[in-house]
Amino acid sequence: MRLDPFSDTYCSDPAKTWKRILGFEGRQVLYDPDLDVWLIAGHDNVRAALTDARRFSNAATLAPLRPPSDAAATILSRFDAPDVLVSADGAQHTRIRAIVRAVFPQASVQVHQVWGALIAEHTSRLVDQLAGHESADLMRVVATRLPLLVIVDILGLPTDGKALPGSADGFASLVWGDFGAFAQRQAAIELVQLWRYCRDSVIARAATPDGGDGLIGELLRHRDGDDARLTLDELAALVLNLIVASWGSTSGALGHALDHALADPHRWARLADDEHYLATHVEESLRHSPVIDGWLRLTTTDVTLDGVTIPAGSRCLLLIGTANHDPRVYATPGRFDPGRAWLSQHLSFGAGPHYCIGAALARLELTTVLRALARRLPHLRLAGGYQRRFRPNVAVRTHISLPATGIAGGCPQGHDARTRSPQ
């Protein structure tokens, strides 16, 4: 079985590939010789692998799917960030995650109380900047910018984010994409620069009396100068993890949610004032179009899953897209239906010990943006002739662009941007 993740089909309509894999000879654990990975498909199989961190290690998660060019490999040898969240295992992951949980709100109500006003303020400013334009690329102007503005503000970094080198897309393409040698080299340079920026920022903040504002300050105060509790490099790697994960995944999720909303004027109208529909629209968008639709793991021992034995030391690609489109869990999975049953069973934020720590934050960003845009720009529509296209990638599904029109017909005045507290 071949996934063909860089094919035209997968880059325009990945659900066709998920359906093909789910229906392949009744087997859902398959070997792909082109990628040299085991494909794990289906809701139960993917969930089993996600929750079994002992036998399915994260050691391969950030290892490039394909060997980098010699020039890129030389540059990447200078990337010496320690494993903290995404690529950590065992006691290291448990220790670091406990530290993050102590300072990073995760419950929906708490996230709203701590960061709701900040997200609403950034959203209002972006919508104001759209006003007066007839058309715009919503990926570039809104979806990519908002998560960056939010996460650098939360961390306590310069709030415009302009000091950050590189992009989340560049990082994702370097690790899971299909870059040529020159683009690989550039992405590797940007990754090393971003890592050094994070480390330099943390070291500078550590030299201040109280660590300063934001999450970086809170982590420094939690560290209390004790390397046994948390080293400065580990703290900097946490900052890097949070920037890349929050920026890239939330940006992609915003693109998907906007795409689904703007595909139907009735959906767009309901988002403005129907809070229940707003929440279910976001959830169905996450299920139907997961940003992280594949995740790499490495088997630490022989593993038998769905009757198939995967040898120890094998790379496995957990196909989250197939889990969310498994017809045994979701009837007519290819249909976008915010009213469907079992919506909360999707695996877009993972499962088990590595469940996304920023899930509630991402949901709040999505609902805030959709509500604000639908209220201010009721005539917003996808541009005529728009054709959906995603960046070539094995693991991260993001729109290349999302052109929209009808902006100039919106309300010129800003409304109360404060989000409502979750029920």
Automatic annotation (TrEMBL):
SUPFAM superfamilies: Cytochrome P450. It comes from the Bacteria. The keyword Zinc does not apply. InterPro entries: Cyt_P450, Cyt_P450_B, Cyt_P450_CS, Cyt_P450_sf. The keyword rRNA-binding does not apply. Transmembrane segments: none annotated. Keywords: Heme, Iron, Metal-binding, Monooxygenase, Oxidoreductase. It holds the Pfam family p450. GO terms for molecular function: heme binding; iron ion binding; monooxygenase activity; oxidoreductase activity, acting on paired donors, with incorporation or reduction of molecular oxygen. Belongs to the cytochrome P450 family. This is Cytochrome P450. It comes from Actinoplanes aureus.
